[in-house]
């Protein structure tokens, strides 16, 4: 049966969720992936009739009816998803054309059109970064056959070789979800086929450019740290005749040693520079990889570098030959070196002479190497590996010359041409075939050159010599000049685009879709569901919900209502066992003047000047609301977190210590207070705190009592504040001179208040230091690695939940024994016979043979057992391909129990009978997890709010110290704190509020303001009235830029 073509449809719902419905060619199912528009993180859990469906129409019906989603885009291939520069982009292919075909009739498509859909974005400036990647007409794919490996491949197309796949990073989020097969695998280069008229054979030329060392011309040269050369291309010429195929392979790339090209100025000539001290590192690994991939006995390295003594490429020639001569010492045998200065021959004799001379060198190796044939009839014994400096023009021309000879050799072996003694290969190959090869090699050369240099290839005229009607030509001098301009002006930005396209990434957080959050008994669906309906919650009552996979709960988004006259508190507990939940946080939800969406941190509070708690995974969350009112109106709550994906590296949590240890730290703090409070002083204080295992809040209390902002004595905050400044020394704050040497130090990733012992890790936050302070910086970083090793800890990832685990969390909470077979909750979607339909509709039915049917449930159901009356106890029932356990009940009833309850939107039921039997009263028992049709109370009792009058005071904001001082006119009676926040600004949200009277503190509280969706007034009612003469607010956010909200007191 012919496989279907992939179908992709992208929908958007008014609730802010994107849904991607993919029907891949390799399965009969349709998969729905949900992406929230706040984080862009994809979600899929494999729940039937929720995110996996038996056909495309069922999936679309679910999306349009459950989410009121609207179709936005359609395509025939899914690239994947990418995150770069504050934006998440979904890529789909919506245009392609057949350019080639493989043995077996597998079609190869060249991409001609694509859509990049912005799922979420916070930075308009970088909106086109990924779209600038040169995708169209330079990339190809095959749905039905793996073309990332040499033919014949025994892998499916959705398990590509990452070395030659160019959307690895895009595919990875889907692979992590177990549905990597939903994405196509794209290659960079060209695949073209040609069937000569009246002939019984086809030629396919494949040019695969590797993705293992991506980059522009001068950014990707020689070997990288993974021992892969820049601009590496694999060529494969495939001849198909009848049921047989014959393949000849080669490689081309830059010189596989460590070297680079240096531009002293924008107008100077580039200089090739070998890294003499490590030129051979990685070269053995590269050639071992070649031997492993091709299984060839010999490798001939054809070097096309200029061989003139003292020339610009002479150092490359010298060290490349040295590197190859050292390979036998590494037990790598069979690698030969053949230099051939193709530029000199072209200059002296032209393309025809260059062709003849070149073949004199390589012809014996090509002929002896032979072809790879299907069914292991033949094996290519020798691989030719070509190089010049760039692996652009000379290698493209040389491989074209070789392709003509390879084609003549194959035609000769197939007895399709007559070969005379002194025949020239170019005269043996039919002109139409040469025209095809010339066009194919020019176009593949242009693609490789475009990606590498942003120009067309040169030496095209040398190829055109063999195909005069070729519609291409090149002005080599003009293109050489264009390349210089491109390299200086354009390549830096192009390099960033390529890195954005190819670099792996992680999602920091995920906003869990309401489709996967299941409220437990007594929790209103509207509290965690879609829409904007309010839920009326009772004071001190707990509400629980379950997640489909263990998650680290990072933050919660709440919708406070303007109807609430007073503030309320939300206590958050979470865990994997409802009897042993862990307290995470208690959040104060302020009074608001209009409905807002407010985000509160839960476990990740580092940016707010606090220590992160040790990560813990949860499958259950428990929310308890409390306050002065008996009831609260709250809009839908959304949960943000990270799913378990391996063990998590963290640091040990500091506990409250004994008074002696705290006193020892107090000595260090007092020394800091007497110091100049430079960065070295605050880092020394942090080293003392970490060395004594003292919690941060002890230091915070010392700072408040000493009258300084805790932010000032927090080394992490000070490092962040100086990280963006490249004009001043981070230690002494002296301005750099224009020609002054700057030293780079980096922040530790684990202990973010210390400097790293590794100054070369570019992924870490950087600081710039002058020469006078470089020794001090080195001392600060000297022992960090030792401390890191002592404090490093790991949180073990929990096992993945099975689909019924959520229901086994607490039998007291969920009633799994309800009749859910009523027609408002379930629907018959297929039946093998009219008898099956009668049974489903509970009619007494006489059955003569086994039958089956499928039931779809409204929303997700948990099926525990089936029941029906039967005149024969030998009846058996199979549910979702698993035989149910049978119990004989009273009154002729049979109960069929499922050992592990099934959580799904659909079940398949098969009733197996061995003789004539009557069946009646068919019933399905379980529970519907969410019931969206429950009555929703839209009107809430609205109590009048007190009129708020601000207390007069004189305020002074010290931006350098991040402190707000307020002086009242005499003694003020304070009942409320009022913060006016601007949603368009990234204001500081972590505030320690202190009231003072008679020189003493009378009130001290730490508030973390929510991040609001709109500009809003946040009102915090104090538990009692405080008399104060002044107020001080210390902002302790760990951010580089300080913006304070407007504050009033009432």
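Sequence proposed for the structure above (1050 residues):
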């Amino acid at each position: 049966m012919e496989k279907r073509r992939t179908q992709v449809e992208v929908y958007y719902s008014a609730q802010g969720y994107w849904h991607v419905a993919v029907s891949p060619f390799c399965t009969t199912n349709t998969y729905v992936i949900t992406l929230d528009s706040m984080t862009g993180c994809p979600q899929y859990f494999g729940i039937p009739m929720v995110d996996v469906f038996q056909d495309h129409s069922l999936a679309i019906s679910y999306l349009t009816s459950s989410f009121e989603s609207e179709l936005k885009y359609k395509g025939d291939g899914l690239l994947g998803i990418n995150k770069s520069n504050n934006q998440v982009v979904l890529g789909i292919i919506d245009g392609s054309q057949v350019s080639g075909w493989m043995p077996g009739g597998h079609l190869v498509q060249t991409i001609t059109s694509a859509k990049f859909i912005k799922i979420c974005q916070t930075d308009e400036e970088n909106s086109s970064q990924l779209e600038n990647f040169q995708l169209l007409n330079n990339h190809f794919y095959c749905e039905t056959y793996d073309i990332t490996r040499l033919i014949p491949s025994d892998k499916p197309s959705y398990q590509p070789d990452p070395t030659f796949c160019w959307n690895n990073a895009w595919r990875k989020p889907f692979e992590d979800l177990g549905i990597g097969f939903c994405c196509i695998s794209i290659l960079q280069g060209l695949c073209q086929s040609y069937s000569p008229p009246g002939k019984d054979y086809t030629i396919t030329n494949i040019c695969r450019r590797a993705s293992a060392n991506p980059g522009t011309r001068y950014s990707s040269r020689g070997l990288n740290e993974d021992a892969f050369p820049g601009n590496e291309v694999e060529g494969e010429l495939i001849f198909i005749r009848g049921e047989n195929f014959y393949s000849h392979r080669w490689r081309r790339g830059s010189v596989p040693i460590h070297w680079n090209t240096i531009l002293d100025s924008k107008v100077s000539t580039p200089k090739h520079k070998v890294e003499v001290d490590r030129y051979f590192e990685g070269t053995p690994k590269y050639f071992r990889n070649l031997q492993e991939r091709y299984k060839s006995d010999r490798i001939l390295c054809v070097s096309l570098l200029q061989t003139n003594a003292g020339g610009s490429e002479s150092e490359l020639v010298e060290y490349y030959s040295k590197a190859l001569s050292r390979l036998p010492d590494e037990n790598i045998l069979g690698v030969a070196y053949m230099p051939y200065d193709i530029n000199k021959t072209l200059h002296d004799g032209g393309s025809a002479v260059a062709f003849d001379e070149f073949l004199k060198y390589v012809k014996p190796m090509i002929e002896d190497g032979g072809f790879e044939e299907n069914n292991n009839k033949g094996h290519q014994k020798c691989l030719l590996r070509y190089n010049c400096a760039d692996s652009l023009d000379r290698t493209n021309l040389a491989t074209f010359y070789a392709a003509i000879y390879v084609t003549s050799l194959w035609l000769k072996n197939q007895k399709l041409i007559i070969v005379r003694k002194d025949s020239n290969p170019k005269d043996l190959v039919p002109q139409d075939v040469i025209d095809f090869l010339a066009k194919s090699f020019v176009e593949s050369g242009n693609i490789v050159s475009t990606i590498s240099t942003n120009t067309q290839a040169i030496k095209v005229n040398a190829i055109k010599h063999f195909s005069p009607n070729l519609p291409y030509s090149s002005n080599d001098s003009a293109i050489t000049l264009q390349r210089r301009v491109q390299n200086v002006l354009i390549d830096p930005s192009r390099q960033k685009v390529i890195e954005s396209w190819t670099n792996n990434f992680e999602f920091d957080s995920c906003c869990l879709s309401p489709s996967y959050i299941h409220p437990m008994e007594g929790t209103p669906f509207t509290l965690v569901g879609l829409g904007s309906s309010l839920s009326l919650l009772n004071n001190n009552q707990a509400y629980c919900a379950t997640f489909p996979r263990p998650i680290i709960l990072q933050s919660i988004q709440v919708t406070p209502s303007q109807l609430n006259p007073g503030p309320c508190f939300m206590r958050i507990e979470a865990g994997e066992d409802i009897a042993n939940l862990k307290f995470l946080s208690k959040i104060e939800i302020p009074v608001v003047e209009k409905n807002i969406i407010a985000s509160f941190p839960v476990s990740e509070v580092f940016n707010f000047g606090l220590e992160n708690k040790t990560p813990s995974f949860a499958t259950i969350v428990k929310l308890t609301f409390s306050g002065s009112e008996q009831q609260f109106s709250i809009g839908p709550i959304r949960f943000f977190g990270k799913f378990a994906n391996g063990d998590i590296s963290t640091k040990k949590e500091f506990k409250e210590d004994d008074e002696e240890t705290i006193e020892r730290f107090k000595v260090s703090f007092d020394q800091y207070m007497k110091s100049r409070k430079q960065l070295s002083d605050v880092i020394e204080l942090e080293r003392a705190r970490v060395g004594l295992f003292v919690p941060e809040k002890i230091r915070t209390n010392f700072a408040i009592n000493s009258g300084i902002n805790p932010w000032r004595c927090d080394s992490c905050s000070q490092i962040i504040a100086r990280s963006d400044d490249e004009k001043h020394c981070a230690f002494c704050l002296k301005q750099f001179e224009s020609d002054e040497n700057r030293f780079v130090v980096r922040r530790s990733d684990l202990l973010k208040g210390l400097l790293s012992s590794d100054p070369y890790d570019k992924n870490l936050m950087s600081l710039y230091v002058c020469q006078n302070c470089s020794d001090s910086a080195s001392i600060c970083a000297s022992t960090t690695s030792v401390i890191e090793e002592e404090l490093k800890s790991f949180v073990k990832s929990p096992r993945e939940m099975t689909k019924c685990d959520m229901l086994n969390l607490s039998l007291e909470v969920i009633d799994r024994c309800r009749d859910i077979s009523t027609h408002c909750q379930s629907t018959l979607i297929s039946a093998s016979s009219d008898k099956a339909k009668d049974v489903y509709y509970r009619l007494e039915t006489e059955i003569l043979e086994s039958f089956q049917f499928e039931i779809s449930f409204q929303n997700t159901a948990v099926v525990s057992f089936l029941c029906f009356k039967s005149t024969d106890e030998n009846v058996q029932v199979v549910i979702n391909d698993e035989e149910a356990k049978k119990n004989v009940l009273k009154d002729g009833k049979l109960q069929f129990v499922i050992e592990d309850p099934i959580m799904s939107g659909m079940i398949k039921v098969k009733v197996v009978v061995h003789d004539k039997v009557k069946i009646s009263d068919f019933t399905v028992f379980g529970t519907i997890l969410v019931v969206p049709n429950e009555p929703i109370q839209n009107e809430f009792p609205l109590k009048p709010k007190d009129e708020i009058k601000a207390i007069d005071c004189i305020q002074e904001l010290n931006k350098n110290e991040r402190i707000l001082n307020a002086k009242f006119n005499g003694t003020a009676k304070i009942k409320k704190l009022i913060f006016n926040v601007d949603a368009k600004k990234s204001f500081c949200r972590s505030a320690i509020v202190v009231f003072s009277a008679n020189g003493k503190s009378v009130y001290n509280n730490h508030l973390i303001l929510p991040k609001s969706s709109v500009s809003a007034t946040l009102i915090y009612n104090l538990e009692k009235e405080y008399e104060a003469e002044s107020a001080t607010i210390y902002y302790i956010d760990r951010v580089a830029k300080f913006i304070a909200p407007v504050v009033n007191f009432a």
